[in-house]
Design goal:
There is one protein chain. By secondary structure, the protein is mostly helical. The protein has one domain. It starts with a helix and ends with a helix. The chain contains two helices and no strands.
Length: 89
């Protein structure tokens, strides 16, 4: 494996991490914006109001996107194993 191959593999790993975490992060950010807007409009500053909806949204999105995340990680692992197998020959 050359240095360029290692850089490509690292770039792919970063991209896979971003793609796999995107649904959960976007759900948490969306719920956070909605809750912050609600708190600003109503002047309610309850701390649990910020955490409970985010936790529920994250758990819900994890349940919905678990197969997508698993397939993404599986594809990346297969790619890595193919590269390892190719360098052994």
């Amino acid at each position: 494996m050359t240095g360029a191959d290692a850089v490509d593999l690292l770039q792919s790993a970063i991209f896979v991490a971003i793609v796999a975490s995107a649904p959960v992060i976007l759900a948490a950010a969306g719920v956070g914006i909605v809750v912050a807007l609600f708190q600003a409009l109503t002047q309610i500053q309850e701390m649990t109001l910020t955490f409970v909806p985010k936790i529920l949204a994250v758990m819900f999105m994890l349940a919905l996107s678990a197969s997508f995340i698993g397939m993404t990680l599986e594809d990346f692992a297969r790619h890595c194993f193919t590269l390892i197998e190719g360098t052994r020959q």
